[in-house]
């Protein structure tokens, strides 16, 4: 099997797991995962630094799936790469108590970095995460000791870019030159109502360019080499956040439903699932099927992640030796421990005063 055959196998496995999860639940959004699978695959396979066996490793890259309606894609990625999310949970998508709720929730499922569902929210939370990372790096990093250098990656959708909150956050990210953000925009020209042209016709990349972002476009959402090259190019451009518009087809591969809003928010239907699997060259009778080669390829990320974390632990040990006080503080911050005697630093106020909170904090 060539590398590109293996890549294709993995992408189809991602698509089919997402399709099957939605079909079994008889509810959900298969179209977005089917279009986004190649960009998600190449991002996770070649760029994302994470350790599926330790989802809270501090210096991991953060991945945000901002269009949370497509979260079967995220659950599929988490399962395949070796997070604590058994296949049985994917088979209980959208069932009460499942680790796979209908929109991904922070704190409920290992590896989910933030709750998404309300469009615009994930994109905006990512800006907050990028600010936090810049602040931590400015405070803790020292020359030769870049202990905090993680990235914020995300997939964002038409609906995300339509939301006002995304414009506010996008504006701030550009202003602050948050070059630690790389967002892949699932530019599929379809949203819940149909073609986006019914409501949304401005040049999105020009809008982000005006906010101060570095923008790129990839014309074929199945071209993982082009997507990979665009991510590489983004990493090389400093001082700006990055957005890459990737032209995808919602519901890619479904003979009767791709490129329509029908595939946005309803299962494909049993017959269409089979036709789609046939079109992918997959066995139409198999459900939740993961070929061994695909699983082995995804699980390489778990092995790599362990090494990446171990390498970081070595770096942190050197930092701790050079800057013991800062290292102690870093650990306290991570654990949420306040410094001893912190209450002594609190101001006291005599009686009731006409004082704004803003001034009281000064
Ligand atoms: C703030 C907000 N408003 C409305 C919705 C309901 N909603 C869910 S998906 C969707 C359409 C999203 O379209 P797009 O982002 O293009 O996703 P795609 O159809 O391409 O999967 C809408 C309006 C929501 N999730 N959040
Ligand atoms: Mg869309």
Notable traits:
362 residues, 5-stranded parallel beta sheet, 14 helices, globular, alpha/beta, binds magnesium ion, Rossmann fold, binds thiamine diphosphate, two-stranded antiparallel ribbon
Description of the structure:
The protein is α/β, with parallel strands linked by helices and 362 residues long. The chain has one domain: Rossmann fold, CATH 3.40.50. 48% of the residues lie in helices and 9% in strands. The protein is built from 14 helices and seven strands. It has helices spanning 3-25, 31-46, 72-81, 87-90, 121-140, 158-162, 164-175, 204-211, 224-236, 262-265, 270-280, 292-322, 324-335, 357-360, and strands at residues 62-65, 152-157, 181-187, 190-191, 194-195, 214-218, 242-247. It has a five-stranded parallel β-sheet, with helices on both faces. A two-stranded antiparallel ribbon has the order 4-5. Strand 6, helix 9 (224-236) and strand 7 form a beta-alpha-beta unit. Helix 1 (3-25) crosses helix 2. The protein starts with a helix and ends with a helix. The mean pLDDT is 96. The protein binds thiamine diphosphate and magnesium ion. Residues 157-158, 188, 190-191 line the site of magnesium ion. Magnesium ion binds at residues 157-158, 188, 190-191.
């Amino acid at each position: 099997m060539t590398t590109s055959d293996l890549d294709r196998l993995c992408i189809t496995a991602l698509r089919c797991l997402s399709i099957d999860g939605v079909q079994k639940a008889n509810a959900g959004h298969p179209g977005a995962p089917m279009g986004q699978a190649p960009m998600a695959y190449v991002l996770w396979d070649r760029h994302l630094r994470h350790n599926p066996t330790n989802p809270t490793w501090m210096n991991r890259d953060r991945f945000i799936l901002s269009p949370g309606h497509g979260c079967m894609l995220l659950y599929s990625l988490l399962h395949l790469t070796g997070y604590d999310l058994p296949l049985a949970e994917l088979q209980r998508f959208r069932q009460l108590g499942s680790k796979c709720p209908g929109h991904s929730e922070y704190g409920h499922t290992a590896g989910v970095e933030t709750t998404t569902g309300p469009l615009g929210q994930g994109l905006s939370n990512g800006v907050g995460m990028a600010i936090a990372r810049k602040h931590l790096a400015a405070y803790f990093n020292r020359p030769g000791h870049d202990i905090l250098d993680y990235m914020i990656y995300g997939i964002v959708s038409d609906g995300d870019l339509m939301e006002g909150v995304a414009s506010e956050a996008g504006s701030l990210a550009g202003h602050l030159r948050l070059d630690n953000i790389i967002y892949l925009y699932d530019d599929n020209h379809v949203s819940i109502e149909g073609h986006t042209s019914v409501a949304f016709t401005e040049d999105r990349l020009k809008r982000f360019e005006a906010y101060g972002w570095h923008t790129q476009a990839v014309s074929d959402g199945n071209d993982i080499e082009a997507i990979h090259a665009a991510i590489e190019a983004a990493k090389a451009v400093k001082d700006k956040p990055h957005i890459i518009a990737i032209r995808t087809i919602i519901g890619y591969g479904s003979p009767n439903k791709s490129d329509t809003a029908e595939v946005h928010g309803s299962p494909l239907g049993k017959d269409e699932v089979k036709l789609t699997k046939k079109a992918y060259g997959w066995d139409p009778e198999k459900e939740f099927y993961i070929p061994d080669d695909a699983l082995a390829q995804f699980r390489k990320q778990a092995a790599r992640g362990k090494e990446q974390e171990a390498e970081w632990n070595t770096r942190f040990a050197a930092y701790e030796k050079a800057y013991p006080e800062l290292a102690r503080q870093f650990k306290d911050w991570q654990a949420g421990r306040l410094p001893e005697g912190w209450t002594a630093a609190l101001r006291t106020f005599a009686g009731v005063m006409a004082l704004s909170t803003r001034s009281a904090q000064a």
